[in-house]
Amino acid sequence: MQKKYRLSGRRTFSYIYAKGSRSAGRYMTLIYHSARRGLHIGIVAGKKVGKSVVRNKVKRRIKEIARRFIPCVENGYNYIVVASPAAAKADFSSLCLDLASVFERAGKLKDKEGAIRAVFGKNVPDKDV
């Protein structure tokens, strides 16, 4: 993910946790709050997800999916994606579909099919799209 889209700073994360709205899925929870400008995304995987190798793998996968979703997500918000322990055993396509559904439930996804196509190209999985 490009640096201009990264959410950073402990105070920013704390503020979004406290004031933000939530939308939960099977493998992750989305916390979002309006931003002064732009779009920023932060990825969090706590120790319940697994050891450091597993947590970093989950975060890398979610970052890649989020990077490809950026054109399809509503601008002007800060987003935090919190991985659940079940995300450690999920495959890439399941994480993608779950992130799309979480954004859609929050009302922040412009085009769900377009977002999924942005990740998979023409090889869209047969799961619930």
UniProtKB/TrEMBL annotation:
Q: According to its UniProt record, which reaction does this protein catalyse?
A: Endonucleolytic cleavage of RNA, removing 5'-extranucleotides from tRNA precursor
Single biological process term from Gene Ontology: tRNA 5'-leader removal
Instruction: Give the superkingdom in one word.
Output: Bacteria
What SUPFAM superfamilies does the record tag this protein with?
Ribosomal protein S5 domain 2-like
* Keyword Nuclease among record annotations: yes
What the protein does?
A: RNaseP catalyzes the removal of the 5'-leader sequence from pre-tRNA to produce the mature 5'-terminus. It can also cleave other RNA substrates such as 4.5S RNA. The protein component plays an auxiliary but essential role in vivo by binding to the 5'-leader sequence and broadening the substrate specificity of the ribozyme.
Q: Which organism is it from?
A: Candidatus Caccalectryoclostridium excrementigallinarum
The signal peptide here is none
Q: How does it assemble?
A: Consists of a catalytic RNA component (M1 or rnpB) and a protein subunit.
Q: Which family does it belong to?
A: Belongs to the RnpA family.
**What are the UniProt keywords, alphabetically?**
Endonuclease, Hydrolase, Nuclease, RNA-binding, tRNA processing
Fetch the Pfam families from UniProt.
Ribonuclease_P
| Key word Repeat present | no
Q: Which PANTHER family match?
A: RIBONUCLEASE P PROTEIN COMPONENT
Q: What protein am I looking at?
A: Ribonuclease P protein component
Listed under GO cellular component are: ribonuclease P complex
Cite the EC number. Answer: 3.1.26.5
Give the Gene Ontology MF terms in alphabetical order: 3'-tRNA processing endoribonuclease activity; ribonuclease P activity; tRNA binding
